[in-house]
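lol forgot to send this yesterday, sorry. struct tokens for the thing we talked abt
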């Protein structure tokens, strides 16, 4: 069981401390990057290190709790709307859009758990289950390719989340690759132009791109 995801009910004061620590963590990761020390987060939250470690054993637990909260706040409502939408394909991409928005906004949080795929399982289970339901419905409606499997969808979602490494945190550059994936898995290509291209940040690709 992951303490950062599945917690027992807390006293009101303890719950307030957890909320302050998670909010401070999001702020500090955004301002200082994935390597921000826990001490900085504790100071920003206005709590002592002992209070932080009483609730989160290490940075991994804190990062997962922060990611979990953003998924609950931003992706869960999109899942509910998608499952109620008679157009399963549209619902599927509503969920993917919401997930990518969180990934972009919380790019530094994701960077703190990069390469630790197993740690994310506990906070993505509901997301994957909803995508499976929507994929099956869309295939039954004939709007999504019948040869697409859930293995394909998990890999496509992982690829899309990886896009945040090639864009400015918080930007909507993810919209173009999501549109390309939509073109690939729908039975009929949507009648719309691709979202605009966003430049790659930094100079690493300058020689290739000219």
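and heres what i got for the seq, position by position
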């Amino acid at each position: 069981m992951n303490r950062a995801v599945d917690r027992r009910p807390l006293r009101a004061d303890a719950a307030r401390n957890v909320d302050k620590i998670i909010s401070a963590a999001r702020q500090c990761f955004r301002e200082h990057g994935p390597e921000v020390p826990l001490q900085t987060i504790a100071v920003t939250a206005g709590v002592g290190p002992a209070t932080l470690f009483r609730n989160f054993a290490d940075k991994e637990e804190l990062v997962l709790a922060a990611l979990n909260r953003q998924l609950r706040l931003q992706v869960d409502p999109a899942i509910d709307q998608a499952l109620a939408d008679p157009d399963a394909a549209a619902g599927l991409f509503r969920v993917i859009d919401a997930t990518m928005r969180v990934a972009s906004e919380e790019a530094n949080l994701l960077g703190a758990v990069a390469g630790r795929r197993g740690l994310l399982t506990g906070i993505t289970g509901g997301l994957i289950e909803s995508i499976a339901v929507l994929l099956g419905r869309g295939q039954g409606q004939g709007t999504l390719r019948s040869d697409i499997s859930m293995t394909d969808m998990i890999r496509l979602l992982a690829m899309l989340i990886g896009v945040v490494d090639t864009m400015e945190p918080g930007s909507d550059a993810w919209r173009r690759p999501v549109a390309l994936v939509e073109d690939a898995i729908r039975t009929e290509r949507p009648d719309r132009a691709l979202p605009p291209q966003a430049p790659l940040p930094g100079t690493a690709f300058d020689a290739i791109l000219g």
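The domain at 59-185 is CATH 1.10.357 (Tetracycline Repressor; domain 2). anyway ping me if u want another try
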